[in-house]
Amino acid sequence: MRIFLLTVFTFLSLITIVNAQNSSPYTRYGVGDLDYGYSAKMMSIGDLGVTQLDPDHIIITNPASWASFNKTRIEFGLGYKGISISNNSDKFFTSETDFKGFTFGFPVSTEYGIGVAFGLVPYSRVSYKAVKNFTSLDNSVPSYKVNYEGKGGISKLFVGSSVNLPLGFIGGVSLDYYFGNLEYFSDIEFDANSSNINTSYNNNRRSTGFGSSVGIISPDLTKAINVQPISDLRLGISINYISKLNTDTILTSTSFSLVDTIARTSTKMSIPIRINSGISFVLSEMYHFNFDYAYQPWGEFKLGDVKSDNLRNAQKFSAAFEYIPKRNIGMSTWEQIVWRGGLSYEETQYKFNGSGINQFSVFGGLSFPMGADNSIDLGLQYALRGTKDNNLLQENFVKLYIGVSFGELWFLRYEK
Asked: Which of 104, 101, 11, 100 is nearest to 57 (CA)?
């Protein structure tokens, strides 16, 4: 247990030191890139897993999935992203590494499907750097460049529970608290021989507010259709609602040593509802298949009463499989490895010059057992996003997640 707690502390201490810029200019709009999943397990099944009833991992898409807990589980991990960005004339590469979240779950009653989970996970991420040069043809007006930078994001702190419902259905609900800072910088730099004063502008938005997630998973439908060798056929749906976030905005300018607050306002940020649905089944007892869909009308996003012309309704389709071998006495560690893979297509929330920014991804991963109930999880994703048409940007990126999932028997009740 002491080694376990030391490992937890080491991972959590990395939060403040492993951080870099992602440099995707698309994240300038809305609340940035969305984090559908937080773990290596979730990434390697397409980030959704709406109908997953996995006793060995914590799935945050659908709180009904927590009914599968049979042991106390703790999960956390790190993520790496390397991204190559190009247009018709330039190309560059950048990368970042960051902490992906922490979750804790435990069973209260396996008979009634009551499981409890809480955690801290990312919801979105803003991270970019860009430079635009302005060349003057008038000698009275100097040339200059503007350095744009954005960083920050929104995080979600949640607690919730699941329960068995009549007719074999499983339900779940969570209370979510959202918070975060989004910072946007614009630095104006004039040519060295200019007498104009360089000026920096900082637009800081601090948002807080509550939301809720609710979900349901159907009973095993193969009992009704009796199709061999298919088993554990389930449907699921979950809804993620966020109330209007209280958002304090401060705009400041800095010139030499002078800092001036230009504007200070309080407003509301409206993040649209997200709907997730899915179907899953097991083939020949070892091959698990998941097909998931997510929809979120980002065209309805508002900061105050203002919508963005660069946002549209987003949707994501994913298909994934898992090979989970049957555990038998005498199996080697290598024979117990769980393998995962799949692909996804996403119409992201971004649009520019009349063109939507779409993303295609392939992914895979594995869980390497560390004893009966613990595992090291790896997830790998390659994605292509955007286009070079219409003077836009194309992004090729690789994500590598590594996580640890611990399972132990806690909170045991003994009969007197």
From this structure: 104
CA distances from 354 to 162, 351, 370, 391 (A): 43, 7, 50, 11
Torsion angle, alpha carbons of 66, 292, 335, 73, to 10: -20
Cβ-Cβ contacts under 8 Å for 71 (sequence gap 6 or more): 55, 106, 107, 373, 407, 408, 409, 410
390 phi/psi in degrees, rounded to 5: 55, 30
Q: What is the pLDDT of residues 98-154, one digit of tens each?
A: 889 999 999 999 999 999 999 999 999 999 988 888 887 777 678 888 899 999 999
Residue 321: count of CB within 10 angstroms of its CB: 16
Cis, bond preceding 229 (omega within 30 deg of 0): yes
Q: Distances in Å between the alpha carbon of 82 and those of 14, 18, 39, 93, 393?
A: 19, 14, 17, 7, 16
DSSP sequence for 299-343: GG-EETTEE-TTB-EEEEEEEEEEE-PPP-TT--TGGG-EEEEEE
Separation between Cα atoms, residue 345 and residue 47, nearest integer Å: 12
Q: For the whole model, what pTM was predicted?
A: 0.90
Nearest CA-CA partner of 38 in 162, 116, 155, 152: 155
Using DSSP's 3-state secondary structure scheme, residue 387 falls into coil
Helix/strand/coil for 67: helix
Task: Mark residue 180 as left, alpha or beta (left: phi above 0; alpha: psi -120 to 50; beta: remaining).
Answer: left
Give the DSSP H/E element, type plus range, for residue 122.
strand 114-134
Q: What is the C-alpha to C-alpha distance for residues 366 and 46, in angstroms, rounded to an integer?
A: 13
CA distances from 383 to 39, 121, 358 (A): 17, 22, 10
Quote the longest CA-to-CA distance of the chain.
92
Kindly report, residue by residue over 301-352, the tens digit of the pLDDT. 999 999 999 999 999 999 999 999 988 877 888 889 999 999 999 999 999 9
One-letter amino acid at 168 equals G
Give which of 195, 201, 198 is closest to 142, Cα–Cα: 195
